[in-house]
Amino acid sequence: AMQNSTELSQALERILVLEDGLKTFSEELETLRTSSARNTNMDVMWLMTSGMLVVFMQAGFSALEAGSVSYKNLTNILFKNLMDMSISTLCWYILGYGVAFGDTAGRFLGTTNFGMRDIFNGSEVNGWGDDGWAHWFFQWAFAGTASTIVSGSIAERTKLQAYLAYTVVMTSFIYPVAVHWVWGGGFLSMGPVSGIASMSSNGLLDFAGSGVVHVVGGISGLVGAVIVGPRRIRFNDEGKPNQLDHANSTLLSLGAFILWFGWYGFNCG
Predict the structure, then answer these.
(1) Kind and range of the H or E element at 196?
(2) Cβ-based neighbour number of residue 18 at 10 Å
(3) Per-residue burial over 84-120, b = 16 or more CB atoms within 10 Å of its CB, e = otherwise
(4) What is the rounded distance in angstroms from the CA atom of residue 17 to the CA atom of residue 112?
């Protein structure tokens, strides 16, 4: 009887130890879950804040370009910058984001997620683990910036209708395809494709859009400037440059500082 009692006591002690271990394990799991949720929230908040700074750069572009054109073209250049973001929002929503980050077709462009059909809170994008809505917002800000770069390159010498048509093509297809190549699992990407690292990756690492945003926007601006040529008043009959005195130094300085401030979201986001 005494032996049975001892064995029973030992068994109860083991059960109590196991119960304490399970309780500790449960507490640790809850701590990890809370910590993971907190980290996710911080990531989303940082991505949204950075995206807001990038959107604010549109004010910098507007001020910089408004300070560089003649008074008669002031309304035109400001309207172009406003319509850039308005049109890019619709185009990025309907087609652009899907082409950029949808399931890849031949590692050339995306073919799904048009109209944000597969985006929800907590959704992953190509295995990166970002919240879907925050990722869409940040990438939309980049798309609008890439489009706006061209505005200053062809200022004062392009019809409004032609520029708006360019914005549609740029944010619906040209820029999204470049994004897919580098960030969306395309043939240049070094990142994961649907969560699986590609063995055939070419390993291109783009930092802060230096290739995707600036090269695409810069080349587009260069092509546009070559096509439309210089301002009619830029050179005299002898081919020498005329002095253009219609710049507004205040707006130029303000625009430069706003862009500088916005780059802290552009580069760090």
Answers:
(1) strand 196-197
(2) 10
(3) bbebbeebbbebbbbbbbbebeebebbeebbeeebbe
(4) 53
Closest alpha carbon to 141 in 115, 179, 103, 186 = 179
133-136, Cβ contacts within 8 angstroms, sequence gap of 24 or more: 134/43, 134/44, 134/47, 134/48, 134/51, 135/47, 135/101, 136/97
Residues in the chain: 269
**Quick one: which of 260, 256, 239 has its CA closest to 247?**
256
One-letter amino acid for residue 196 of the chain: I
The whole-model pTM stands at 0.77
pLDDT of 25-65, one tens digit each? 666 666 655 555 556 777 788 888 889 999 999 999 999 98
Residue 92, token pair as written in the block: 């990025």
